[in-house]
Specification:
This protein has about 500 residues and is an alpha/beta fold. It has 23 helices and 10 strands.
Length: about 500
């Protein structure tokens, strides 16, 4: 978590212009977001201009226009004109609702399985989001925030369901969590994730929702707790934070390494046994990365637990398991990250810790290491799309397109539809393909993107084609159809933090 001094430099993400694509980088309170760059300011100006122009021509308010498929297309036109041609979109699509709607309809049934989503418990003590929103309203930055008392409801279950299942093309979501030595600061308890999963699936009549259970190596009796919760909650997979306490790092007493034979290997033995009845329990989901230099200065002893140096040996020793590395191990490098990360890549051809992860299959001779895109894809897409292309190219080149998996870290970044559209439209520029040996990403529903969006996660979690077909016509699908006709539409809001504008 950020301290008070750091929080004073931030504003809630709801305060930025509600473009279909965020106009500056959004973070949870795990790290400081960078200030809006010159290019992002250029993009914001363009998207506002196009919104006003095209909305007027289509007889809509700018808000309603940006909720439409044509409005989303307009945002990507603005991205291309700001950063260079990265996204497959045309001005004609933005100007012609029929064309935009036809494309959206054609992709509506695409199977998208987001295995990295979050919301906050009803009794959460994490109130920094609320305080920041109230401050922004009082200062006049976003007057709409003065219209009602600010609550944290936007980050709780009802809005989570709306953002994930109604405001995006996501078909399946995994409810993830966090961990703190102080239980109150965990986003959700394992019991809460289980209850939410069951509620969604009961409403849907299908398997729309999956859930992690958090494991905490080193805690007294932790393996006994794993045994008890496995029997009672039947999680779809287990997730751990090698850093120990990610929320309150000063409380972190039990960081761990994945290749610690004494601590972790007995746990892996249990997963192998349990996976005979439930194959998805082969998936060891691990939070890595997001460990900026300012945090390293405060907690230098935690650095070795945040990077990916412990992944290779564990994966080689346990070929029966899958090691799914959240955020693909991406290292956040501080407020100057958009510039420094790109300069580092141009100079070395490497992305800190992400390239290290991508190197593991060749270095260790393994095929059971996976890279999750949570935060990483969202951040690079908004900060520097060429860096986003480099991320995709690096992961696919090293891990294979079969081992890159879809996760968005929503709802911190709002409804995940803009991230879905970004990947659907993104292509690695030809100059980068030639220079770095990257392969093309292909069409929105081509084999590479279909694998990343849902095919790989479906294989990891044993979701059959029959189950995928049932989801398209279940009760949630029916609710979504009604919502699209009669509901208020996507807000285009994000719910984390952004740096205050100068």
């Amino acid at each position: 978590m950020l301290n008070q001094e750091e929080l004073e430099q931030l504003a809630p993400a709801e305060s930025i212009f509600p473009s279909p694509i965020p106009v500056q980088c959004v973070s949870s309170d795990e790290y400081m977001p960078p200030p809006q760059t010159e290019k992002q300011r250029e993009f914001e100006a363009r998207v506002k201009e196009y919104g006003a122009e095209l909305a007027k021509k289509q007889g809509l308010s700018r808000r309603l226009f940006f909720q439409s498929a044509a409005g989303m297309a307009a945002a990507f036109v603005a991205m291309n004109e700001t950063y260079g041609p990265m996204y497959m979109v045309s001005r004609a699509e933005a100007a012609t609702p029929e064309m935009a709607n036809e494309r959206a309809k054609a992709l509506k049934s695409q199977f998208i399985m987001d295995m990295h989503t979050h919301f906050l418990r009803d009794d959460t003590p994490i109130k920094t989001f609320v305080a920041q929103r109230a401050t922004v309203g009082k200062l006049g930055w976003n007057l709409s925030l003065n219209e009602k008392e600010q609550t944290i409801d936007d980050l709780k279950f009802p809005n989570y369901f709306k953002e994930i299942y109604l405001d995006s093309d996501t078909k399946v979501g995994c409810i993830s969590g966090s961990y703190s030595v102080d239980p109150a600061y965990s986003f959700l308890t394992n019991d809460m994730k289980y209850a939410a999963r069951e509620k969604i699936n009961k409403e849907a009549g299908t398997r729309r929702s999956y859930s992690h259970a958090i494991f905490t190596p080193g805690h007294p009796g932790w393996l006994d707790k794993v045994e008890e919760e496995q029997a009672r909650l039947k999680p779809d997979s287990w997730k751990g934070y090698t850093i120990g306490d990610n929320t309150n790092k000063h409380l972190s007493k039990w960081p761990f390494r994945l290749d610690d034979e004494k601590v972790m290997y007995p746990f892996y033995e249990k997963l192998v046994k349990w996976s005979r009845d439930n194959p998805s329990l082969k998936n060891v989901c691990i939070h890595k990365g997001l460990f900026p230099p300012e945090i390293e200065k405060k907690f230098p002893h935690l650095l070795e637990y945040s990077d990916v140096r412990d992944v290779g040996k564990a994966a080689k020793d346990w070929p029966q398991l899958n090691f799914v590395i959240y955020h693909s191990g991406w290292r956040w490098t501080g407020p100057n990250a958009p510039k420094s990360a790109w300069e580092h890549f141009e100079k070395t051809g490497r992305i800190e810790w992400v390239t290290d992860l991508a190197d593991i299959p060749a270095k260790y001779g393994v095929k059971n290491v996976y890279g999750d895109l949570g935060q990483l894809f969202a951040w690079t897409t908004t900060a520097n799309p060429r860096l986003g292309a480099a991320v995709m190219g690096t992961l696919i080149k090293g891990l294979g397109s079969s081992n890159v998996v879809w996760g968005t870290d929503a709802v911190w970044t709002g409804a995940p539809q803009w991230q879905i559209e970004a990947l659907r439209r993104l292509e690695i520029p030809e100059d980068m393909q030639k220079k770095y040996g990257y392969k093309p990403l292909g069409t929105a529903d081509g084999p590479v993107k279909n694998a990343i969006f849902g095919g790989n996660n479906a294989r990891l979690y044993n979701v059959s084609p029959k189950q995928q077909a049932e989801i398209v016509v279940d009760r949630v699908a029916q609710i979504k159809e009604t919502y699209e006709q009669e509901g208020p539409g996507r807000t285009n809001m994000a719910y984390g933090f952004v740096a205050k504008k100068a």
